[in-house]
Every structure is written in C-alpha cells, then in structure tokens.
Amino acid sequence: MTQTRTERRQLLLLLAATALLLLLGLGSRELWGPETRWANIALQMLQSGDYFDPYLKGSPYYDKPLLSYWLITATSWFTGGLGHWSLRLSSVISAWFSVWLVYLIGEQLFRKGTGLIAGWMLATTFYFVFWARVATADILTVCGVLAAVWWYWRGPDDTRFWRYVVFFGLLSLTSLFKGLIGFILPGLVLLPHLLSEHRWKRHLNLRLLGALLIAGAFYMTPFLLSHLYGAPNYEQSGLGLVLRENVVRFFQPFDQFGPIYTYLIYLPVYTLPWAPCWLIALWVAARNWKHIEPDTRWLIQGLALLMLFFTASGSRRSYYVLPLVPFAQLLGAWWVTRRMAARNSEGRGLKIGFAVTTVLLAAVLGVLYPWTNSGGGVIRFGEQVREQASQQAPLNQWRMVMIEVDNKVPMYLQTGGAPFYYVPETIEDFPHNGDTATLIAWLERTSGEHWDPQRTIFVAQYRSGDAVPLDALKADHQVITTTPTRGEQLFHGREDQSVAYIPHS
Fold it and tell me: Where does the sequence pass through the membrane (predicted)?
C-alpha cells in the first residue's frame, strides 16, 4: 500500500492522538477491578523471583497463561519497579497497535480512507480506551486477533511456509495472553473467506502442518518451563486451567452468568459514540447484499460468527465483547466512506466529531480521573506508610504482614525487602484480637521464621462502618488508615478501608 505525503500525515496524527488518549493521566488512577489480580501476581513474581508459579495473595492462581504477567514484570525492570505505568503499559501499547492494525486492514480491503476513519472511530471509542488503560489480558488479545487477520489479508492465497509460521505464531502468542480464544477468534473471523471459492483447499499441505507443529511447540514452551523450573509442590496445572477456563467454562459455566442477549446490548454500548454507524451499515448491507463488495460480506459474516460464538458460551460478561469492537467500527467506517463517496463529501462534520470526541476523552482521562483519584485513597495510604516506616529504618529492612487484604493494596506498599507474608481469610486460628506479642508468636509458629516486632508492619482491610481489625495493636503502633479521595468526598464515602500498624520507634 503506497501512501502519499498527506496520507502519512493523517496516519501520524491518528497515532499521535491515540497515544495521547492512552497515556494521559495513566498513572493517576487507583487499581481497578480485574487489574488488581495482575498487580498482585506480578508483584509476588518480582518479590519471590519465581516467574513460573503465579500466586494471588499467597495462594496458587494459574487462572491465565504466564505471558501477560511476564510482560508486566519485564516492563517493571525498565521503569524501575512495579507501578501504574509498568502495570498498564503492555495494554496501552497493544491498544495503540490495534488502532494502527485497524487502519491497515481498512485501507487494504475497502475504499481509500476507510482505514483512517475506522482508526479514528476505534481510538475515540470510550470503552476501548477505558479497557486499554486497564492491566488485563483483554486488549492484548484484541491486538493479537487483529495482527493475525492483518497478516492473513496481506496474502490470503500465499502458501509459503514462512507465512504459515508467522500466522500460526501470532495465534500461539495471542493464546498465551488469555487462552485458546487466541486460536479460535481469528479462525472464526477468517472462516467465511476461507470457505468462499474453496480457498481452504489451497492451504491443505504439509507446509501448513509443519507450521502448526512449530506454533504448538511455541505455545507449550511456557507451560513446559513452568513444569520444569517451577516449585515441585505447586498445586495447579497451567494446562489444566486452560482446559477449565476455555473448554469447561464454555459448555458448563461455573461463574459469570449473563442472559443470552448480553452481547446484543453490550456491543452497541461498547462501540459508542459510533454505534449508529455500524448499525446503519448492517441495514444498508442487508438491503444490498448481492451488490456489496465481497470483502464487506466477509466482514459481516465474520462479525456474525464472533457474536454467535460468544453468545453460545454460557459464561458471559460485558467486556468479553471487546474483540468484536474493531470489526464493528470497520463496518461503520465502510458505510461512512460509501456515503461520503455518494455525496462527494470530504467529511468535514466527521472530522469535527472526531476532534470533539478526542478533546472530551482527553479531559476525562487527563483531568477528571487524576483529580477524582487525588487527595487520598490507597495511593496516598501507601505513600504515608512508606514515609513513616522510612523514618525509622530503610524500607528494605521492613517485613509486611497482609491480613485479608484486597489485591490492590500491596502494590502501593512495596519496600524492596522480603516478600509479603499473606494470612489467608480461611485461617481460623489467627489471633485477630491479640496484642503484638501474641501476633508475633503466632507468626513464628506458623511460618517457622523469626520475626522482629520492631520491623514488622501489619496491614489489614475492612469495610467502612465495621470495627477496625487488630485494634489492640494501637497501644504500641502508629495507626495509618485510608482517607477518601476527592472523588469519593464529592460523590460517596469510601467503602473499602485499609489500616496499617507501624511499631513505635
């Protein structure tokens, strides 16, 4: 695809605006929702040096393949430690590439300008940008699916071995982020094109089989390393969890139950404010099905197969619809460029719409989010604990005991010292009402280690309005609790409270 100077400038503007929306205020929001699990698992990997056995709050938790955790720990080495930026940067980079890939696919398959419009639609889709700034594997999966589709469309009839290796390598890489949907979703999207004109027959060859074997070996490598170099007494199997999360959950869901119409509601919601474009495009395409371009029919059929696949699964959640969003925006961009061509329009109103949406998103992400998360919360709580502890001794000399603490708190309390000691909620003999001597004695009995009461910080969490846990420690400890952020002061009180006990010097 040869670009003119104007087209290059337009692409650079799109990518620059996307980077701004993804990075602005990225480190100003507390951990939210599922990203707390990624933070806790990555932190325990960094503290223990064990990168093959994922733990959540001290318990085995091989819920997802290892690669998304490894990306976070690798980023933390470059940023100087685990923080908001290192935690979320892999998702941000994946989202940025996703916008670029949508641009490339649109420009390659449809009318000139379709990719640019689709890229702007995706970059200014609120929920896409929102999830792109959350540390999970979902946007990584979206990027991997788009990369595989883009690679296929660069040469759909090319049967060279190296092209198969790259394609299936992308599928394996995507599957190592969240699970086997990395293989399934690109296959569903491309299936209508492979079936048309019997294209699939061209790809039934030994070169494809060889590439599949290489991709399979690549996919198995982290699980093999985990088996060989992980702790011998680790209780969970990564491959067993893959089977449970990707196969058992599909046919016999054990959580995340949603009504069968879940995605009929959430796909329009997750494509706002541009949902009307692809909905109109569906109606236009249905009326002119025999006369529209074959690639447009492929796009609609692939999108329909994705919708059927997710709907057929008994486990449904709103954000599972994210892989459909780029393809829906591509369909909307197809209709927009078709309409612009019919009217001989340059799309001035559309450009204004993209500009306004970009400014609004930047204001929300770069101004409103940082302001509502300032003035308190667990970010400030962590800062206060470290400030007070460092006045007595270097941070790496302290040990942390985490008692029924939510996943998001430990990241803010990093000291660079010994790994945190987690007291699970299921422990019944923990002396919740004991004094310092009683708690230290219990720790030494259960852990088999020596604990210095003058270098041990106890951290616990409780609900607002409940009794403060470990209250007996206030006799000889400094007490630090979370305070509401400005947003919480304005809208509602803080529900989850954390308390830390630092021994008096």
Answer: 85-105, 126-153, 165-192, 204-225, 263-286, 298-314, 320-337, 349-371
**How large a percentage of the chain has pLDDT more than 70?**
94
Strand partners, 477: 503
The structural domains of the chain, with segments of one domain joined by +, span 5-370, 377-503
- Taking the C-alpha atoms of residue 289 and residue 285, their distance in angstroms, rounded to an integer, is 5
Strand partners, 403: 423, 460
Element (H, E) at 71: helix 67-79
Q: What is the DSSP letter of 461?
A: E
Query: Half-sphere exposure of 335 toward its Cβ, with a 13 Å CA cutoff?
Result: 23
- Reported as half-sphere exposure (CB side, CA atoms, 13 A), residue 65 has a value of 30
Residue type, 505: S
Structure tokens at 504: 């008096």
pLDDT tens digits, 175-201? 999 888 999 999 999 999 999 988 999
- Plot region of 375 (φ>0 → left; ψ -120 to 50 → alpha; else → beta): left
Residue 29 to residue 203: CA distance in whole angstroms:
48
> Between the CA of residue 233 and those of 144, 229, 237, 415, what are the distances in Å?
33, 11, 11, 28
Q: Which residues contact 485 (CB under 8 A, 6 or more apart)?
A: 30, 372, 373, 374, 375, 376, 377, 380, 494
pLDDT tens, residue by residue, 67-87: 999 999 999 998 888 999 999
Of the candidates 128, 440, 470, the residue with the CA atom closest to the CA atom of residue 273: 128
CA 471 to chain centroid = 37
Reduce the DSSP state of residue 271 to 3 states and report it.
Answer: coil
Indicate the range of 149-163, 415-429, 443-457 predicted with least confidence.
Answer: 415-429
Q: What angle do CA 499, 501, 503 make, to 5 degrees?
A: 170
- For residue range 322-345, list pLDDT tens digits in order: 999 999 999 999 999 999 998 888
